[in-house]
Write a structure and sequence with these properties.
- With 481 residues, the protein is an alpha+beta fold.
- It contains 17 helices and 21 strands.
- It has helices at 14-24, 33-40, 60-73, 127-136, 153-158, 166-169, 204-208, 245-256, 268-277, 305-318, 331-342, 344-348, 366-380, 409-413, 416-429, 445-451, 454-467; strands at 29-30, 54-55, 76-80, 98-102, 109-113, 118-122, 139-140, 176-182, 188-191, 217-224, 226-227, 231-239, 260-267, 291-299, 324-327, 354-355, 358-360, 385-386, 389-391, 396-398, 401-402.
- The strands form 5 sheets. The protein has a 7-stranded antiparallel β-sheet with strand order 15-12-14-13-19-20-17, with helices on both faces.
- The two termini are 16 Å apart.
Amino acid sequence: MTSSSERSTKAPDARLVQRFAAIVGHEHAITEPEAQLPYLREWRDLYMGRTALVVKPASAQDVSRILALANAEGVGVVAQGGNTGLVGGQIPSESGAEIVLSLTRLRTIRAVDAAGGSMTVEAGLTLAEAQEAARGAGSLFPLSLASEGSATIGGALATNAGGVAVLAYGSARALTLGLEVVLADGSVWDGLKALKKDNTGYDLRDLFIGSEGTLGIITAATLKLHPRPAETATAFVALPGLDTLLPLFQLAEARAGTGLTAFEFMSGELLSFVARHIPATRRPLGGEAPWYVLLEISGAIEGRARPMIEELLTHAAAAGLIGDATVAASLTQAAELWKLRETASEAQKGEGGSIKHDVSVPVARIPDLIREAALVVEEICPGARPVPFGHFGDGNVHYNVSQPAGMARQDFLDLWGPMSRAVHDVVVSLGGSISAEHGIGRLKRDELRRVKSPIEIDLMRRIKAALDPKGILNPGKVVGG
């Protein structure tokens, strides 16, 4: 039997393009190549696709009609939110065989229930807008990414995004109570429940979260809200060496408990990149250190967080775990410290080519990952500069590698395949995952088949075939191809 992942889709002809366009109105159907460019190029320029049509529906009903037509005609559909994805999952193929379905017009905030701790919003709302809606109701929606001004709810759920607050609040999956999803044949599953407990059979919600638009298209979600902290204290800390990273985290967790809302680490070389290439940034501490940590402690009672973080730093210094530290004295200073972390990826562009790995290992194995991966990187490309950073508390390491000084950018990027395989082998040997929060998309599709067991791949393909038998949803991504 031919699986859905092996079937090929076809590009729509001019007549079919007009039928798709009529569903949303011709003013929301983009056919001009120049106007399509923002939807076809991945922001790191790793992928550049083609399409006959970018269609922008305004409702789940529009999405339903588009998918029903696409399914009937065998046309591939690539769903896209804010186009901030990092594995190429939101970009159509170079063949031009798929249409792009942009969800950015689905922006309605359907309900906010602060008392019940939930809100229901459509998939095209940005994370920043969702955060603002929660803030307006006196609540907190804690999913926070560097790209939150353009990343959308639908995209974040489709990739199960993590972000800087995972330590305290969990990933996108943990923040989702219910979904509305349009299936490949155009039928609509209304699972927009606000229940915190629902043990009635298979968990369909979790099946679609993280599926990257290959099983269905998320059009709305009921999201979990949290109480807003009364106070937050932020500190930036220099570490004398990699060996103190885990003990410092353990001390912070022991002393702050659930009040520890962020524990972000970055290499000293990466901080140098940020100071060199990101305007309006500066080193917050004197001298240089091999490793830095950004700590955040939040409290439900005003006046508790700052004394707690200062006491923590005092104990850490006495134990020899830190060399220097500064605590933000204002919200402005806290934002300046966070900017050092949030611009880490952007800063690497100024150093030439960058080969990136979004991986996870058990928290206690992070130092092992950093040491062992550095050895294999040096074997493959002598002089390459690893600049790891990430969300230490959940084991998520962005093990990025910048090109050696003086090496041609393309020569370095040509090593992406062998370097990623070597780093991923280290990750797997430590009991880790080759994708922590960015997904699989196109970039890691072949690697997924290499590191997953045959039965895992077979089960995923069976699910894909059951929900998308014609293979029209995001063809060639995740387990496709």
